[in-house]
Write the structure tokens for this entry.
Amino acid sequence: DAKTTQPPSMDCAEGRAANLPCNHSTISGNEYVYWYRQIHSQGPQYIIHGLKNNETNEMASLIITEDRKSSTLILPHATLRDTAVYYCIVRGWKTSYDKVIFGPGTSLSVIP
Amino acid sequence: ETGVTQTPRHLVMGMTNKKSLKCEQHLGHNAMYWYKQSAKKPLELMFVYSLEERVENNSVPSRFSPECPNSSHLFLHLHTLQPEDSALYLCASSQAQGSGNTIYFGEGSWLTVV
């Protein structure tokens, strides 16, 4: 399974864009990049995913480099409620199921 | 609401007790997962059921016993636990095939072993 590397923590001013990087240099051609976030004491919440093209939804945008070795999650206008741990994961396909491994993630603090 | 419901949300049990955690998904998925999250640690994958068959067991002690009676329900039976087993236990579900299928998590069950 491809491993991901993220900075342990980041700060962002409220109202500004939060750009969270992720390195996944060993990603395989059929593996997707997924982003989740976990607010304290809650289950991880799905944010967005992509294969090779950039993606956008109501929560965030995902920018994947052309070589697919890294990606950036963008929260366009961060609010205090976006303070959470953000996980970048790569889906590892194994026989009949997906083996999803989480790393330590990035702890994002949105500052007033 | 993610479509994955876990009960109870909080559980306190003694080391000699037997209890169970329950998970139900309303998403029509056919793969279900148990994860453990200890304080300030990443999520650890414990068990995976795909099409009601256990396909992953990550060296989890036998005091944790999973059960998947059908594709919508998943249990984690707990017996003679240790204080270090206190953690957030998370259930998740997805479609069994295709790495493009999203995994959805429940809110978790907080377990305290005293």
